[in-house]
Amino acid sequence: MFNLTFYYETIIDESLTEVWRFFQSTENLAQMTRLPKIAVLGDSNVYEGAKVHLRLNFLLLNFYWKGTISETVDGVYFIDEGEKLPWPIRSWQHVHTFKALSHNQTQMIDRISVSSFLPSRIMTIGLTMMFSNREKYLHHYFN
């Protein structure tokens, strides 16, 4: 078993209010994630106790993800935690933190604590690819 804490920072040229509003919809998660393709099967809004149920499509293979939004502080952060996760992931906690840098610029920090059957280096590569693609999407969406 391998444990990893992964950080990714994204600076978004938009107000904290607008960035927070965007991240309150799980449908937007599906829109900004290219691989795997995501279908939202659970709650479509982010709130404490919301069920995050996803179908992850990796070309010909589908995996299912079940989690919960365990904590949220309006305009500051929310946490999603995995409950029933696809192989190779054993546990997952994702803290999404938001901070206004100015009236039209927001810092978003993703902190993921994950246990996996895959070595941390492989997980880091996969997460970096996924979050860099999300960052590109966010820069395009907010510009």
TrEMBL record:
<dbReference type="InterPro" id="IPR023393">
    <property type="entry name" value="START-like_dom_sf"/>
</dbReference>
<protein>
    <recommendedName>
        <fullName>Ligand-binding SRPBCC domain-containing protein</fullName>
    </recommendedName>
</protein>
